[in-house]
Automatic annotation (TrEMBL):
Keyword terms: Membrane, Transmembrane, Transmembrane helix
GO cellular component: endomembrane system
Protein family according to the UniProt entry: Belongs to the UPF0754 family.
Name of this chain's protein: DUF445 family protein
Organism: Paenalkalicoccus suaedae
Membrane-spanning ranges: 6-30, 356-378
Annotated InterPro entries: DUF445
Superkingdom: Bacteria
Record Pfam families: DUF445
Subcellular location: Endomembrane system
Main location: membrane
Length: 379
């Protein structure tokens, strides 16, 4: 009986020592977090393994992640399957569609989401200033140069192409007006007024001319004159001559110097007023953005994503090197609280660590049994 109790005590002591040793070893992976000192002497095995080797572990993990886990080759494969960009494109299209039905102005939306108050007003002012500066520089460079030096040839061809039409319009509309009752009446009034202004004899002649309807005779002759092809050709030639003379003159002969700024402001206002988005962004989005939805969702966003995919694929290796994944992992591991890291690892491997402690206890108990048997039966 005494031998049995002796062997049992050895088994229990061995199990406690084996299991306890493993538990201490597990704890010494993390504890203590800092080195212990007695005077100037550092206590052995302090700090724990992971705190002591923390920087080395961070370097090794950073190299592991950069060289074997998150690699350019792996990212290329991920990009080629198209899932990432398809999902991003889908989310962008959904976000744009939701944005375009908002009952807020674009400026208000930017102010709310990006804290950019009056950003669009500043942009509009910058655009206006840019247009005004450009137009003023252009006017300063060209105001004393003949128009024919800088007006595009296509414009001149277009203007000359309309000369026959203008001449025909002048003759046809002039003949039509002079042949009408209103035109005849106007011509008669002009004749009478002219003759009266020349004295009594001319006034008497005017009354006679009115009675015999001299205005009607002159009107018919003028109509016949305007209906002749020669008249149209003459007017056409006059217009061409005037156009040629005008092209030889500088803009300064058509626009007074003190009126230049006024016209530049008018041009700027007209351009801004006709420019898409700039002329509309002070209105609620849902009032004007609908006509841009298909352009944005079906054309611009897919093109942007396709271009981004191409650029990212081409420069992925360079981008990943610039990101510094290795340094990023090192920095995060070194900054991560040791207590929290211990909790996470123990939580993940709690079952396995318990089994290690139990295994240590079993081995210790087995050693105690062997020792007890040797003592009892051999010694």
């Amino acid at each position: 009986m005494n031998d049995f109790v002796f062997i049992l005590v050895l088994i229990v002591v061995g199990a406690l020592l084996g299991g306890g040793t493993n538990l201490v070893a597990i704890r010494m992976l993390f504890r203590p977090y800092r080195a212990w000192h007695i005077g100037k002497w550092r206590v052995p095995f302090t700090p724990g393994l992971i705190p002591k080797r923390r920087e080395e572990i961070a370097v090794k993990l950073g190299a592991l992640v950069e060289d074997h886990l998150i690699t350019p080759e792996g990212m290329q494969v991920r990009l080629k399957d198209g899932i990432l960009f398809s999902e991003v494109e889908k989310r962008l299209q959904q976000g744009v569609s939701e944005l375009l039905v908002e009952d807020v102005t674009l400026d208000d939306w930017l102010s709310e989401h990006l804290q950019k108050k009056d950003q669009l007003k500043q942009l509009r002012a910058s655009v206006e200033l840019g247009i005004q500066t450009t137009v003023k520089e252009w006017a300063s460079d060209y105001k004393h140069r003949p128009l024919e030096e800088f007006i595009p040839v296509e414009w001149r061809f277009q203007a000359e192409k309309y000369v026959p039409l203008i001449a025909n319009t002048i003759t046809s509309k002039g003949a039509e007006y002079l042949g009408s009752e209103e035109g005849l009446k106007q011509l008669e009034q002009l004749m009478v007024g002219y003759l009266r202004s020349k004295g009594s004899m001319s006034s008497m002649f005017g009354r006679v001319a009115t009675r015999f309807s001299l205005a009607a005779v002159i009107s018919r002759e003028l109509v016949l004159f305007l209906q002749k092809k020669e008249t149209t050709a003459l007017i056409e030639e006059l217009i061409r001559n005037e156009l040629a003379d005008a092209l030889k003159k500088p803009p300064s002969e058509f626009i007074e110097e003190d009126r230049m700024d006024y016209y530049i402001d008018k041009i700027t206002t007209a351009v801004i007023g006709k420019t898409p988005l700039i002329s509309e962004w002070n209105q609620p989005l849902k009032a004007w953005s609908g006509r841009y939805e298909e352009l944005l969702t079906k054309t611009i966003i897919p093109q942007v994503m396709a271009t981004a995919s191409l650029i990212l694929s081409r420069y992925l290796e360079t981008i990943m090197k610039r990101l510094g994944i290795k340094q990023m992992v090192e920095r995060e591991i070194n900054a991560f609280p040791l207590r929290r890291l211990e909790e996470i690892l123990l939580m993940i491997a709690s079952k396995e660590l318990k089994m290690i402690a139990v295994l240590g206890g079993l081995i210790g108990g087995l050693v105690g049994l062997v020792q007890g048997l040797l003592v009892v039966f051999v010694l």
